[in-house]
Amino acid sequence: MKVVAINGSPRKGGNVAQCLDVMAAEFAKEGIEFEVLQPGPRVHPCMACYHCLNKGDVHCIQKDDMVNEIIDKCIEADGIILTSPVYHGGIAGGMKCVLDRIFLAACCGSENKFHHKVGAAFCTLRRSGGMATYQQLLGYMDAMEMVIVTSDYWGAVHGADPGEVQQDIEGLEVVAKLARNIAWTVKVIDAAKGKIDPPETHPRTFTNFIR
């Protein structure tokens, strides 16, 4: 069983990365393989060209960044964690570009590749915008029939300069518990395979609000 995390921060070794290190330690204890994917700042926005949907391709037509690699890793994984620092009250711009392309290409076509995968999220922040960013991250997974896992508090860990999250003891406890809950849920779903049939699903009917 494997969990992947998308580190939406453009910084290496920043506060998001340090929170993911805490989660990595918990996954190791539970025997869950864990990989962090960090696309960095040089990613392209979604062009809404719909090439992926029109061609039935789970990959984005833009191929000169690591978004398609991330898509493949997420499809293979049992669980997906979305993370981002808070930038001006919301998801970091690069991470927004990544998520728009991943969830359109892999989830909105004839087959949702993230259907019933375990999902979770958290963000890091200096002062404000944590709840809005956390809910933005969850919103991507909530619309895709993913099994969302939570901790015992909302996924927002405080820290501005790299390393300051180490002072947010409660925040680090939240992400550690989140990792344990993800590991448990992934194992439960795996144990249910062949014993409990998943609920029926079908492609959604797209309705545009125009006349």
Question: How many strands, which pairing sense, and closed or not: the largest β-sheet?
Answer: 7 strands, mixed
Query: What is the CATH class designation?
Result: Alpha Beta
The shape is globular
Q: Using DSSP, what is the number of strands? A: 7
Ranges where pLDDT stays below 50 over 5 or more residues in a row are none
Mean pLDDT: 96
| Number of helical stretches of at least 4 residues | 6
Structural class: alpha/beta
Helix content: 25-40%
Order of helices and strands: EHEHHEEHEHEEH
Classified in CATH, the superfamily is Flavodoxin domain
CATH architectural label: 3-Layer(aba) Sandwich
The value of Rg in angstroms is 17 Å
Strand content: 15-25%
